[in-house]
Amino acid sequence: MLNRISIIAIITIAIFSLNSCSSWLGKVNIFPVEQDVTLGKQVSQSFEQGNASMIMDSSKNTVVYRYIYGIRDSILKTNLLIHKNDFAWRIRIIQNDTIQNAFCTPGGYIYVYTGLMKYLEGEDQLAGVMGHEMAHAEKRHSTDAMTREFGANLLLELIFGQNKAQLLQIATGLAQLEFGRDAETEADNCSVDWLYQTAYNPIGAAGFFEKIQKEKNKINIPEFLSTHPDPGHRVENMKKRWSDKGSKQGQTFTDRYKRMLNYLPK
Questions:
Q1: How confident is the model at residue 24 (pLDDT cuts 50, 70, 90)?
Q2: Would you list the domain boundaries of the chain?
Q3: How far, in Å, are 15, 48, 167, 225 from residue 172 at the CA level?
Q4: Three-class SS of residue 122?
Q5: pLDDT at residue 235 is higher than 90
Q6: Bridge-partner residues for 55, per DSSP?
Q7: Cα–Cα distance, 262 to 266 (Å, whole number)
Q8: 83-113 burial, b for 16+ CB within 10 Å, e for fewer?
Q9: What per-residue confidence (pLDDT) applies to 252?
Q10: Staple partner for 231: which of 10, 114, 180, 209, CB 3.0–4.6 Å?
Q11: 201 within 8 A of 74, measured Cβ to Cβ
């Protein structure tokens, strides 16, 4: 774990770099990895307290949870995640059919809405979306965005526990945090790379973005998910990355996906 002197040194370097070149903004993440774990736990506790009635009980919905954890395990078994053993990678399903969304907090707490599961057409698409969201945690995009958003001085106080109330407030807002174009592209790339090492169709996430591109005026998704960056460009970029890797074919597992959907609440 970084000590106070080490973090101050990193911040000092970052500040001088920012003064000379604005492209450095967001390139220095002053958080130690352990802070991602702490923040992720804060986010998950806050979110679940506020949405307790909508979170499906894992002990009463074993078929669906076993299914979705199997997808997670396929991604983790690729051994391409540096933080495979550092983060929780825990999944909770949110019973809300009106929202087609998923997100992953720092530290690997994964949330998937039933609206998304029912909207998708195959297991490969769910795996692709989960891979994308897990990549945001793996690549530490949230704490990087917080470094940019809130600045070094405030985050230094939060890291050393001098402002617990503000830490909780910021952590609570992480679930709605919008990532920049570079972070979204990196997450898309990870989704392709990770699924390429599995039995899945490596561009499963592209199928989701193609679908929302056609229907974005008909479904309830966060605006930034459909427009930042443009879904068409995301599909094009994912297909190019897949092609550059050799265009390996994979399975959609559509039939077993449809069978799983029968176990979701109506």
A1: very low
A2: 4-261
A3: 27, 10, 8, 19
A4: coil
A5: yes
A6: 94
A7: 8
A8: beebbebbbbbbbbbebbbbbbbbbbbbbbb
A9: 98
A10: 209
A11: no
CA–CA dist 63, 264 (Å, integer): 9
CA-to-CA separations, 250 to 57, 190, 195, 247, 260, in angstroms, rounded? 32, 16, 9, 9, 20
**Model confidence at 16: pLDDT above 50:** no
Q: Are 90 and 220 in contact (CB under 8 A)?
A: no
If you search the block for the tokens 């059919």, which residue do you land on?
Answer: 97
Burial 40-52 (b: 16+ CB within 10 A, else e): bbbbbebbeeeee
Decide: 130 and 72 in contact? Cβ < 8 Å.
yes
Cα–Cα dist 33/36, whole Å: 5
Q: For the segment 90-143, what is each residue's pLDDT rounded down to a tens digit?
A: 999 999 999 988 999 999 999 999 999 999 999 999 999 999 999 999 999 887
What are the residues facing 92 on neighbouring strands? 111
User: Rounded distance, CA 133 to CA 64, Å?
Assistant: 19
pLDDT, one tens digit per residue, over 164-200 is 566 556 555 555 556 778 889 999 999 999 999 999 9
Q: Which residue carries 């605006």 as its tokens?
A: 223
pTM: predicted TM-score of the whole model, two decimal places? 0.83
Helices and strands of the chain, counted as H and E runs? 13, 3
Under a CB-based contact definition with an 8 Å cutoff, are residues 175 and 113 in contact?
no
